[in-house]
Amino acid sequence: MSPSTLFCFAHRGYQRQASENTLQAISQALALDVDGIEIDVWNIGEQLLVTHDRRLGRLLSGNELITDLHPDALRQRLLPCGNKIPTLREVLELIGSNAQLNIEIKGPNSAALVAKEIQTFVSDKGVSFDQYIVSSFDHRQLHECLQLIPNVRRGVLFSGIPLDLAASTVPLKAYSLHTSLDFISADLIADAKQRGLKNYVFTVNSPDDLILLASQGVDGVFTDQPKIVLDFNMQVITSGK
Q1: CB–CB of 176/156 below 8 Å?
Q2: Mean pLDDT of 55-77
Q3: What are the helix (H) ranges across 1-86?
Q4: In contact, 17 and 25? CB cutoff 8 Å
Q5: DSSP string of 171-191, one letter each residue
Q6: Is the pTM of this model over 0.90?
Q7: CA distance 107 to 29
């Protein structure tokens, strides 16, 4: 069986062009016409900021926990590309209806704010709830999202192979299973498919891995290099003609 195309999520935007999770990186990914964008959010002083690390030091100077900082102070610090950390609302405004948005909840006590922000934006702009996926390794926050905003799809993140495979997605009424490339398993993929879940794999940057995953029936990938995935999809489409 010939491989299928893969849904392409630009992981934290297009990081080759700008610092991850910035409006500039997201804009660069949208310019490539990717299928989706993946971002990370933290509740910092009751504001949802789009950033990945729990502690400063990798992209921003310092070594503080970001939850110990005031959100305005954090947003005053410039990232390597010269941009600031955006808010979730700014990202929602930028993307509009141009791509799907996967919002990964990284920090604690974020689910209620995420639900409120999406509900407000959908009400204000008239976009569809189907445009969004909320994902997390924190399955309790995903369950909270199910209670607060059930019409937004949920993606369950795993960094290993659970003993019960994809069974934990059932009480979350999940839409998709997000699996680490390091732990990809034919049994896990098959079990998720039997449960009607989409299989999305992170973080995939090699053409060889794309071939392998597509042949295993994976639905999509999160990638730091979206052009590689888009080129792969074009080759699949061309070869199928």
Answers
A1: yes
A2: 95
A3: 23-31, 71-75
A4: yes
A5: TTT-SEEEEEGGG--HHHHHH
A6: yes
A7: 24
In the chain, which ranges are continuous DSSP H helix? 23-31, 71-75, 88-95, 111-125, 139-148, 186-194, 207-215, 226-239
Handedness of CA 155, 10, 21, 16 (dihedral sign): positive
Read off the pLDDT band of 3 (50, 70, 90): confident
Would you state the pLDDT for residue 2? 63
- Token pair for residue 223? 């990638």
91-122 residue pLDDT tens: 999 999 999 999 999 999 999 999 999 999 99
Tally of CB atoms within 10 A around 12: 25
Identify residue 84 by its one-letter amino acid code.
K
Structure tokens that stand for 121 in this block: 């934006």
Only one residue has tokens 């993140």, namely 157
Query: 123: how many CB neighbours lie within 10 A of its CB?
Result: 9
Strand 36-44 with 47-50, pairing: antiparallel
Q: What is the DSSP letter of 133?
A: E
Distance CA 7, CA 210 (A): 11
Q: What is the pLDDT of residues 188-212, one digit of tens each?
A: 999 999 999 999 999 999 999 999 9
Q: In the chain, what is the straight-line distance between the N-terminal and C-terminal CA atoms, in Å?
A: 15
CB atoms within 10 A of CB 58: 8
Percent residues over pLDDT 70 in the chain: 99
Q: Are 78 and 19 in contact (CB under 8 A)?
A: no
